[in-house]
Amino acid sequence: ATVIRLEDYRPADWLIDTVDLTVSLHPTATMVRATLALRPNPAGAVDAPLALDGDELTLVSAALDGAPLGLDAYTATSQGFTLPHPPRRAFTLTFETLLNPTANTKLMGLYRSSGVYCTQCEAEGFRRITYFLDRPDVMSVYTTRIEADAREAPVLLGNGNPVESGPLDGGRHYAVWHDPHPKPAYLFALVGGRLARVGRRFTTRSGREVELGVYVEPGKEDRAGYAMDALVRSMRWDETAFGCEYDLDVFNIVAVSDFNMGAMENKGLNIFNDKYVLASPQTATDADYANIEAIIAHEYFHNWTGNRITCRDWFQLCLKEGLTVFRDHEFSSDERSRPVKRIADVRNLRAHQFAEDSGPLAHPVRPNAYREINNFYTATVYEKGSELISMLKILIGSEAFRAGMDLYLRRCDGTAATVEEFLACFAEASGRDLSHFALWYRQAGTPSLMAKGAYDEAARTYTLELAQATPPTPGQETKEPVVIPVRLGLIAADGEELQLRLADGRELADGLFVLDAPAAKLTFVDVPTQPTPSLLRGFSAPVKLRIDLDEDDLLRLFRHDSDPFNRWQAAQSVATRLLLRAVDAVKSQGEPGFSPRFAEALGALLAATDDHAFAAQVMALPSEADIAREIGQDIDPDAILEARRALRASVGRLIGPRLRQVYDGLASGEAYSPDAASAGRRALRNAALDLFAAGDPEAGAELAAAQFEAADNMTDRFAALAVLAQIPGERREQALARFAALYETDPLVLDKWFALQAAIPEPGTLERVRALMSHPAFSLANPNRTRALIGSFAMANLSQFNRADGKGYDLLAEVALKLDDANPQLAARLLGAFRSWRSLEPGRRAKAESALRRVEAKTPLSADVADIVSRCLA
Ligand code: HT7
Ligand code: ZN
């Protein structure tokens, strides 16, 4: 596949002002008639031919200004349509194309999901519906007429507002939708199907009445309420927090069961993976509820950051995605606990983005080249993109940030913008030069921030030396220093927060120091006693902090830091030190031993805290993958598993009675509610059960089995099953069988059952996964099911995916090869599990490489998979 480069960007030679579509739905023969009103782009080249994109299209007819085009006037293939000599004026082109939605297993363009017609056009799906200038800077006003069998598809939805609808001959009917807002083709959508509607009215702050609809599979209406509630809260929040008001008369959300990603922000018609819409206490966990809230908000927020202001080209993807992730994080922080949300987001960032950034798939937040854009919907673009916005806000302050957002939303409204245009608004609003900050968008890799402190008792000074370095990443051997906002504090031995007075008289406003050079030295004066530095508070920059604090320092931070994020971080750092030592012990055939102080500190927290959600985050020790990233090279996943098991068992034994007390004390007789406080109580209770069972598997299993039976909600039932799944034996198998029997007709719950088993860290799991692939409910055609079983095995089971015999890699390669033709996007995503293969010990590395080479050898190989595999192997 050809490489597309940012530096080659040119405006389109043609513009398309309007698109009139008639889509006559049929399971295997859908006819699409598209009339495009074209005109030369004043900013484009003169005398340019007209080359439209297509993908797997069957052309039935083509006409220019309504007159059929002779065969010699154009060239058309399934992949494109060219008019070598187009008129040098405005004209229309009308195409008829024939589609087979049932055969569309790639789930891009128009396809059928459980009998429901739906579309997915981002990034390049519209070209699978009709020939088009399928690029985000070509924006058109769409009118869509949808026709269908009235029994098969009584509900017909499009972008924008409904215009008219009515019956047709032969049991068919139609609906016309008009979207007055010019938009790129990737935001086009339609839906047709037998769907049930849950409705609500929303009045915007300026008085616009909006009809909200959430469409789900009939019979599941009672699971749509939370999504609707989250939508209403998102709409209100966006008005208050960013001044963004909704701009159409209707807003619809449709849940479908086959979807390549989480959801899609099509204008006025969001289409969702049903996993992120459907929830009831009996089928969804607290984590599911939180995800639904975040993703509903995310897609809704795109209405301004993505739709009203879109991207000039796909290199600017972070412009909408990073910013919208930032906005959804802010929303969840306001709706729930800000510190707990920050901890969860940083865990996620480290697990996915840091891992990506340190391997062969590393790329800048704004990449400068791609072969397959689908592979750039990454943690780097989304999560690191969001971190850059957080840093921008810290650097210029909340007020200037809001002024910059207001300016951006006003100035760029209705345009396809760039990162430069975005940053210019903040530079203007703050009066600051952001050119150095902009490097974060171009430079890949996670910077390390090295810190070293020294206390001079006689002079009562404390000197903090800071330095930064970013490791090389593919295509970027040398790195420049970036702008790192470091929020910091100094903590005295008694836990008091010390004043931050610098020797040169400078003040650190809000404890913020901005490191924009390779290194800096800060000398604090009037420091009465040896302090402990609390650095990178709130995780003020997406960097790896390297500071040599001893256990005393870390435990002091854990107990006293006024910054809750750093309290959590201190506990994680103590655990990490213990785990790294334990891994060494395991590798040299020794017994890992642990100082009891960490467990005691956890016990003390449990005795004192009433912030249950925070305490639950503290109790969740670093994951195997976290430990692997700390080790960085020659990784032995079995040693990590053993070390982590040993620490959990030791902590569980040492504070078992306290854990049991917490578990009993948090039992609730109240009816389930998904609110943050109730979820926090359940999270802590289940974390206590989990650690208790690690210390005493027999007693823990008994408690878990009782909880499994008694639970009136999925959070508690599934948490109990997860505990049982860690303890081999008949009881586990019985619980798994019982769970399957209880939920056999509920696909989203069954996904949890598949995922849980695939993540069991035992050698038998490979065979279990292979057996589950033959389970009647398993299908590679359903992305959720495939991600649940194969994705969970490859991404959430470090020791078993990375088996020393390479059989885990063989399994993933086999699945990817099977999926490559049918759904290359999904195949490529799953193969992302190989992103850290070079940091394994040599034996596993060789096995991983040979699995990747086997995939590489398939011919033909999809562009999606070829791109991932070749970058992994480069
Ligand atoms: N903007 C949406 C991206 C998306 C997507 C991309 C490629 C292939 C399928 C897709 N489905 C959705 C989702 C979002 O970030 O809001
Ligand atoms: Zn998004």
Automatic annotation (TrEMBL):
Its EC number is 3.4.11.2. Its cofactor is Zn(2+). It comes from the Bacteria. The lineage of its organism: Bacteria, Pseudomonadati, Pseudomonadota, Alphaproteobacteria, Hyphomicrobiales. Belongs to the peptidase M1 family. It catalyses: Release of an N-terminal amino acid, Xaa-|-Yaa- from a peptide, amide or arylamide. Xaa is preferably Ala, but may be most amino acids including Pro (slow action). When a terminal hydrophobic residue is followed by a prolyl residue, the two may be released as an intact Xaa-Pro dipeptide. Pfam families: DUF3458 (PF11940), DUF3458_C (PF17432), Peptidase_M1 (PF01433), Peptidase_M1_N (PF17900). Residues 552-874 form the Peptidase M1 alanyl aminopeptidase C-terminal domain. The gene is pepN. This is Aminopeptidase N. It comes from Alsobacter ponti. Residues 445-546 form the Peptidase M1 alanyl aminopeptidase Ig-like fold domain. Gene3D superfamilies: 2.60.40.1840, 3.30.2010.30, Neutral Protease Domain 2, Peptidase M1, alanyl aminopeptidase, C-terminal domain, tricorn interacting facor f3 domain. Residues 226-437 form the Peptidase M1 membrane alanine aminopeptidase domain. Residues 89-187 form the Aminopeptidase N-like N-terminal domain. GO terms for molecular function: alanyl aminopeptidase activity. Keywords: Aminopeptidase, Hydrolase, Metal-binding, Metalloprotease, Protease, Zinc.
